[in-house]
Amino acid sequence: MNENKSRREFLSHSGKVAAACALLGATSSVGYAANPATANCEADRRMKITDKHYYLDNVLLEAGFEFDGATPVSTHTELKTLEINQGKIVALRDNRQHADSTLPVYDAGGKLMLPAMRDMHIHLDKTFYGGPWRSLNRPAGTTIKDMIRLEQKLLPELQPYTQERAEKLIDLIQSYGSTTARSHCNVEPTSGLKNLENLQEVLARRKSGFDCEIVAFPQHGLLYSKSEPLMREAMQAGAHYVGGLDPTNVDGAMEKSLDSMFQIALDYNKGVDIHLHETSPAGIAAVNYMVATVEKTPQLKGKLTISHAFALAMMNEQQVDEIATRMAAQQITIATTVPIGTMHMPLSQLREKGVFLMTGTDSVIDHWSPYGLGDMLEKANLYAQLYVRPNEGTLSRSLALATGDVLPLNDKGERVWPKAQDDASFVLVDASCSAEAVARISPRTATFHKGEMVWGHVGQGSKA
């Protein structure tokens, strides 16, 4: 109800701004006599801060933990003013203290400031989102090769809408606080490079407010669909990562498939991000083979992400410890959607061993799944529910999954974010602290990327 209320208030506020623009005959911005701060009157009626240098008052920041022994039991906060200039937080000031009285002033309304979130596994190029609702039937026993055949039929139908729907998906994840993403993008004979070209056009338009890496993804199998030449073209065309898919279940040749994937990455100096769904012994073998490949190939250190990695759930505790130690040494990343159900991933064990974890939406209302909210705070909440014993400290630590390990407080309760010269990329949340935001999946009110407000609204501030 609170989220719906805040959205109604936002729409009402936005409508008033748009009406003011129309009455004043403005086409790009509206001036407020009480304050020189300006806001664009966009076609979609969203308020956008256009100033490069401004103050943001009444920002609620975490200041420390209160401990009972070694256990955090509550979080201290304080209101501050941020000075933002050219996309950076250049100073944290006492609240409503403005060293330069000529600068525009905005008001965060006492909302909690958290680091901007990162949706690091999403498919922006193929979705029903933004179009009519569709929920496709996937009968029991449907195999991944059945899904490949379905994709070969559906992708030409979806391609005319790729750009429009990718824009809608970006809007969605920004509304939940994400300003950075990694999108897998189909590169296979059915799509050719058209999905990549469409996505690149969208990302070029959204560049000022959204950072996104692209994984060239051979969804129909690197070997199975003979996609290697297209994948090499995608690298030359600007894709950031080489993708891959189930080297045994789809390609039918684990070592050859993985070797081909890694060779493309080496030839073009790119990273690797593979979908690995396999839970059979072949999946475990694939994990071990990839880790061993990175260990003997220094150029690949820090460049491998294993997405899903369900095979890790099939390992016992000792096996996970051993492979996680090797992964951490090679800076291998695991991208997880925090799956629910019978599969219990060893995510907390991986974190304890120093493996970098990140999360993402994956599918959003498409032919793979009718679910997917685009909310990384929801993923942090799921992680906390499934993998930690809840208290103020563990709940606040769980936020790291959503933010790329950026947290306001360190384990000792010392503020480490934000600090001067950090990017002004953050989300304002209707919560009292990180722990509450994670536990309650609290509503977001505004999202900023490098100083630009890309979603939501804030108030007009006043001179101190």
Automatic annotation (TrEMBL):
PROSITE patterns: TAT (PS51318). Residues 1-33 form the signal peptide. It holds the Pfam family Amidohydro_3. It comes from the Bacteria. Residues 163-435 form the Amidohydrolase domain. The keyword rRNA-binding does not apply. SUPFAM superfamilies: Composite domain of metallo-dependent hydrolases, Metallo-dependent hydrolases. The keyword Nucleotide-binding does not apply. Keywords: Signal. NCBIfam families: PRK06846.1 (NF005312). This is Amidohydrolase family protein. It comes from Serratia fonticola. The lineage of its organism: Bacteria, Pseudomonadati, Pseudomonadota, Gammaproteobacteria, Enterobacterales.
